[in-house]
Every structure is written in structure tokens, then in C-alpha cells.
């Protein structure tokens, strides 16, 4: 799976498309990741999945849980564990705000996109999200389809 290059210099490694469908994203925060050398090399190969992962506040910060970065193909016996919890690098104020939202207001932290920025540093976008009910998801799909249909009608007439 090759990574895609965006206009702003970001090279996307993994994207969680279901997050935007299953959750209503209130806020997006960019965070760094504490990674080992073989994890970075595996990411450079474009191998990672964040579809089933989530972020959660723990004792000394916020951790990315259940993200799969497979072992590096040319790694040796000191290769990393593929699904280990990885600490997110955030400012203390951001950690406090996100932790408060998760604990008091019932939000969840959904990873949206894992990428290398223009300086080659691995970053992750975390969305402060509120879960959608099944009927809400259908409503969003209806609205999206209707807006597409409106655009088509306007384009064909004009």
C-alpha cells in the first residue's frame, strides 16, 4: 500500500474513513507519536492501519491503542511489537482539555489520519468525536446524496 502525497507536503500513511461516518467530529488535534526506529521504518514502507484503533487518556498522557504497525521486514530480533500502546505527544493544556472531554462529556478520541509532515516527522490527527446513532448515520448519508444531486441538477441546467 503506497502512501499518498498531499498538496501541503503531507504523505498520508493510513486513514480512518469510518471515523467520519461513525462519529460527529467536533475538533481535530495534531499530535506526535513516540515511536521506535523499526516502527518509523515500517511506516516509511507505508504499512499501518488505524481503522480499529482509538486514543485514551491514561496515567501520564494520552495513548494510541490498538493501532497496527506491522514489524519491519528487514528488522532483527529487536523488532517492535505491532499493536503496542503508543504515547501521543501533546501539550499539557491539550491533554487536560481532551481528558476532561472524554471523562465528563462522553466524547471519544478517534484517530483520523496518520502521516509524515513536510519535515518527515510522523504525526497523527486525533478527532474529538461524539458517537452517532444508526438513524443519524442514515440522515448524514441522505444529506450528502441530496447535496450531490443538487450539484448535478445545477450543473446540467446551467
Quick take:
The protein has 158 residues and is an alpha+beta fold.
Query: What is the CATH architecture annotation?
Result: Beta Barrel
Low-confidence stretches: none
Sequence of secondary-structure elements: EEHEHEEEHEEH
Continuous helix count: 4
Q: What number is the mean pLDDT?
A: 87
Rounded to an integer, what's the Rg over CA atoms? 18 Å
Question: Shape from CA axes?
Answer: globular
Structural class, please? alpha+beta
Structural domain count = 1
State which percent range the strand residues make up.
Answer: 25-35%
Number of strands: 8
Brief descriptors of the model:
8-stranded antiparallel beta sheet; alpha+beta; globular; 158 residues; Small Protein B, Chain: A; 33% helix
Describe the protein in words.
This protein has 158 residues and is α+β, with helices and mostly antiparallel strands. The chain has a single domain, classed as Small protein B (Small Protein B, Chain: A, Beta Barrel). Helix content is 33%, strand content 32%. It contains four helices and eight strands. Strands 1-2-7-8-3-6-5-4 form an eight-stranded antiparallel sheet.
What are the SSEs and their pairings?
Elements: E1 4-5, E2 11-15, H1 17-22, E3 23-33, H2 37-44, E4 54-58, E5 61-65, E6 86-89, H3 92-105, E7 108-116, E8 122-131, H4 134-157
Antiparallel strand pairs: 1-2, 2-7, 3-6, 3-8, 4-5, 5-6, 7-8
